[in-house]
Amino acid sequence: MDDKPAVRIITIDGPTASGKGTIASEVARKLGFHYLDSGALFRLAALSCLTQKVDLTDEAACSGVTRQMRPCFKDGKVFLGDKAVTDAIREEAVGLAASRVATMASVRTAILDLERDFCRAPGLVADGRDMGTVVFPNACLKVFLTAGAQVRAQRRYKQLIQRGISANLADLARDLQERDKRDRERAVSPTRPAPDARLLDSSDQTIEQTVRCVLDWYCALES
Ligand code: C5P
């Protein structure tokens, strides 16, 4: 009898701009799996709070807004209700606000169901901060992806410029540090590798090399 769970899950956690999104979506594409960008859900919660001018220190108000939001992911685009917010959620201000609402336990609880809804056959690749520790503890492969602080700031800078969003490298490096510190030190679901996660430092790797490494780990498990 086959005791493998019907849906195979790979989690890729790590700090801001470590390349999780790029690697996770490519691994998902190659395996024909679904893909969850959990950071987008926190960014959507933050954008909803900012749009509704909610005080970001008021946990009850922030979780109320989060519970009511109706996100939709379609053809690479992100919607809140029928409003396209694909670019708006990528603004650095929204990322910083996301890391503030992400410290709130009740906001995280509201997002948990949305995250687990992505778990569909044949499999899922989920990226975030707590995918392997909290959201999908039964994942068959857990990766904790890192890269040096300078490398991450430069990658994020390039990403923003390519999207036509103006950015300043020094400001960006400072914001990433602030965000990572808050994500690492918060009481609920801090960024950290699961005890059974494999560490992968992509500082000196190409995207292809990092994707290959994750796929090799996965295939070795499956064989
Ligand atoms: O990954 P991304 O930078 O888009 O995430 C935005 C913010 O959302 C992070 O800085 C973090 O505070 C929060 N987040 C989280 N848990 C996740 C994914 C994102 O706390 N699983």
- First-residue to last-residue Cα separation: 16 Å
Strand content: 15-25%
- Distinct small molecules bound, one entry per kind: cytidine-5'-monophosphate
Biggest sheet overview: 5 strands, parallel
Oligomer: single chain
Count the beta strands. 8
Put the structure in a nutshell:
By secondary structure, this protein is of the alpha/beta class. The chain has helices spanning 20-31, 38-51, 59-68, 92-101, 105-116, 131-135, 149-162, 169-185, 207-222, and strands at residues 8-13, 34-37, 71-74, 77-80, 83-84, 123-128, 141-146, 198-201. The protein has 9 helices and 8 strands.
Short descriptors:
223 residues, alpha/beta, binds cytidine-5'-monophosphate, 3-stranded antiparallel sheet, single chain
